[in-house]
Write a structure and sequence with these properties.
alpha+beta; binds magnesium ion; OB fold (Dihydrolipoamide Acetyltransferase, E2P); elongated; 8 helices; 6-stranded mixed β-sheet; 369 residues; binds adenosine-5'-triphosphate
């Protein structure tokens, strides 16, 4: 038996009319993993989820669930359940009937249906509204009902397409937490589609970043945030400072990037054998790692990389100060720092400042263009 709950091998989707929606999608998901798919609108997230669910045919490639080939198996024979953004709740049925529906379709004995529906209603705390219809439910209750309808079929894999998109921000946050706890308890594999990067990163054990039908990077949230592998990920995830340049020499496990500001150092995010010196690349520095000092007052530390600029604006938002720094006509940097940290550092509009960071925080990313 395969170690993986779900395997996508070179999955590809071409819609009638010739539009390539998904290309070369490889993924291996372990049992009980929470995987999120994130990317801009139209990048192929829903298409990929629908291929896993069997709601969309697979043009090329293959799909395995627990080691078995499901590429051409119809949706009702797959051990998956899908939850859509609009929930697709039947308005004329009660909560209880909605949850039971999928089991009735499968013609389970009524005692078994009752047992499973009771268990789900208890688990999702829907007992108080079990005999209500959709119109009487709150946003959070509708969301739990949709979840209940999926879980009652006891799927191996639960597929969720922007299931929290209809909720307001506060409810969304609390349901994110509930969903994550529930997923851990159940130990079921979740594939969760969202276009909100914060949601993808806070929910996922691993995150798949997609762009224009292709996978850009698959990593755990921290790695994705701190070690982007492509220019797209560097721009799409987190709040990175990005400085263009050309590759110079390797120094130990770091590389030099020659930039218009001088030499910067960083950890290569690619196989160094694949890129010649002089290749176009970029230094990617997460904002959270950048420190700011009045020009020339940086602790005398050869181990840091430094860029000089001029403060153009300061904005105080409670304890946090937003500092805008102009480096050159093409490059403005915005930082958020705690006000105590810069209290004695003469960071004021018009002042020259040095931005510093540890080079091992920098990732050197090849520029494909
Ligand atoms: N039924 C269809 N027929 C033809 N093209 C389609 C069909 N469904 C989607 N597409 C196209 O395939 C591409 C991927 O669409 P998809 O719905 O998978 O994107 P998505 O990442 O889910 O976007 P969103 O964040 O907006 O939901 C888009 O270019 C879209 O126009
Ligand atoms: Mg979609």
């Amino acid at each position: 038996m395969s170690a993986y709950d779900l395997e996508l091998v070179k999955l590809r989707k071409v819609y009638p009319g010739g539009a390539v929606a998904v290309e070369d999608f490889d993924l291996q998901v372990e049992k009980g993993e929470f995987i999120s798919f994130v990317g801009p609108s139209g990048c192929g997230k829903t298409t990929t989820l629908r291929m896993i669910a069997g709601l969309e045919t697979i043009t090329n490639g293959s799909l395995l669930i627990r080691g078995r080939d499901y590429t051409h198996v119809p949706t009702e024979k797959r051990p998956t359940a899908t939850i859509f953004q609009n929930y697709a709740i039947f308005p004329h049925m009660t909560v209880r009937e909605n949850i039971a529906f999928g089991l009735k379709v499968r013609k389970l004995p009524s005692s078994e249906i009752d047992r499973r529906v009771d268990a789900i209603i208890e688990k999702l705390e829907l007992g108080g509204v079990a005999h209500q219809k959709e119109s009487a439910l709150s946003g959070g209750q509708k969301q739990r009902l949709a979840l209940g309808r999926g879980l009652v079929t006891e799927p191996d894999i639960l597929l969720l397409d922007e299931p929290l998109g209809a909720l307001d921000a506060n409810l969304r946050k609390s349901i994110q937490e509930e969903l994550k706890i529930l997923q851990r308890e159940l130990g079921i594999t979740f594939v969760f589609v969202t276009h909100a990067q914060s949601e993808a990163l806070s929910m996922g054990d691993r995150v798949v970043v997609m762009n224009a039908g292709r996978v850009e990077q698959i990593s755990d949230p921290f790695e994705l945030y701190t070690r982007p592998k492509t220019p797209f990920v560097a721009r799409f995830i987190g709040r990175n400072k990005i400085i263009d340049g050309t590759l110079g020499a390797a120094v130990g496990d770091q590389m030099i990037l020659e930039t218009r500001f001088g030499k910067l150092r960083g950890v290569p995010g690619f196989d160094t054998g694949t890129a010649p010196a002089g290749a176009k690349a970029m230094a990617v520095v997460p904002s959270e790692y950048v420190d700011i000092y009045s020009a020339g007052t940086t602790p005398d530390d050869e181990t840091l990389d430094t860029l000089r600029g001029t403060v153009t604006a300061l904005d105080r938002v409670g304890q946090v100060v937003h500092v805008s720094v102009n480096m050159d006509p093409q490059f403005d940097v915005r930082l958020e720092v705690h006000r105590d940290k810069i209290a004695d550092r003469h960071v004021t509009p018009g002042a020259e400042v040095d931005l510093t960071w540890r080079p091992d925080r920098t990732t050197i990313v090849l520029d494909a263009a």
